[in-house]
Design brief:
The chain is mainly alpha-helical. Helix content is 76%, strand content 0%. The radius of gyration is 24 Å and the shape is globular.
């Protein structure tokens, strides 16, 4: 042990102990950064994007539309649910939170299979819908449902934390002033927790944009109907690597911008 310490002092000098923290940190950071750098570097050719923008496969708006709809539905339905979980006390609340958090950690393929078993043509509820002429799998609606299943809990989680951090004295003061439940929610809770809501919406949109596993199992790969950008990247890997790389770089840039906005919102909240 003494020989190891003496060797470390000779190699790194007096500040050798810092390398105990720096070295593993740099290795892991390099592991995260190098693949992204390699992908972006390969796409730095002057005419790389010009050629791909002309490709019919590249000019797709489906992912942007479905991700936006998914986020809107998550905000409309998830905000009241997050408020309920943050401010109300009731039985089985822990189990309800478990159900909401489970899609976040589930493998996407499991999520897609679960949706198929529930809303597929022979699924638990899908058979009834099929009897009345409604078929969900392999449609654009299926894309939105798959994205909502895996990304919606992110918004609920962020909004729940935002509502939970609101000072209870403000809530009591509002009731003393004669505010009802809706006025408390709309005029007190929402303005205070708005940064958490915005951060959750951005994370939801980003996660929905990158969803692949649940989508391809539940919605399939129909160009113009269910083929999202991640699926197009997977298909392009076999047919047109250039298009797959271009789409990947676009998704990286969009994710970086949205994450920077989220970081800025977190700093303002602090």
């Amino acid at each position: 042990m003494k020989k190891l310490r003496e060797f470390s002092r000779r190699v790194f000098g007096k500040g050798y102990s810092k390398w105990i923290f720096l070295l593993p940190s740099l290795i892991l950071l390099a592991f995260f950064a190098l693949p992204l750098i390699a992908l972006i570097y390969r796409s730095l050719a002057p005419d790389f994007f010009a050629k791909r923008f002309q490709s019919r496969r590249f000019r797709r708006k489906l992912s942007l539309v479905t991700s936006s709809i998914t986020t809107l539905v998550a905000v409309i339905l998830g905000t009241p649910l997050a408020y309920l979980l943050a401010r109300w006390k009731f039985r089985f609340k822990t189990w309800l939170e478990l159900i909401l958090d489970l899609p976040i950690v589930l493998p996407p393929s499991v999520a897609g299979l679960a949706l198929l078993m529930a809303f597929g043509r022979r699924g638990l509820f899908g058979s009834f819908l099929n009897d009345i002429g409604i078929s969900i799998p392999f449609t654009t609606i299926a894309v939105i449902m798959a994205q909502l299943f895996v990304a919606g809990p992110l918004f609920v989680r962020s909004a729940r934390i935002g509502f939970a951090h609101v000072d209870k004295q403000l809530e009591e003061s509002a009731y003393v002033e004669g505010a009802n439940q809706w006025q408390l929610f709309y005029e007190v809770m929402i303005p205070i927790a708005i940064r958490a809501l915005a951060s959750g919406a951005i994370l939801t949109w980003t996660r929905a944009l990158g969803e692949f596993g649940a989508t391809i199992l539940f919605a399939g790969n129909l160009e113009g109907v269910t083929q999202t950008m991640p699926i197009a990247i997977y298909i392009g890997f076999e047919r047109n690597l250039g298009v797959a790389m271009a789409l990947s770089v676009v998704l990286i840039l969009v994710s970086v911008i949205l994450l920077m906005i989220t970081k800025q919102l977190d700093k303002e909240e602090e």
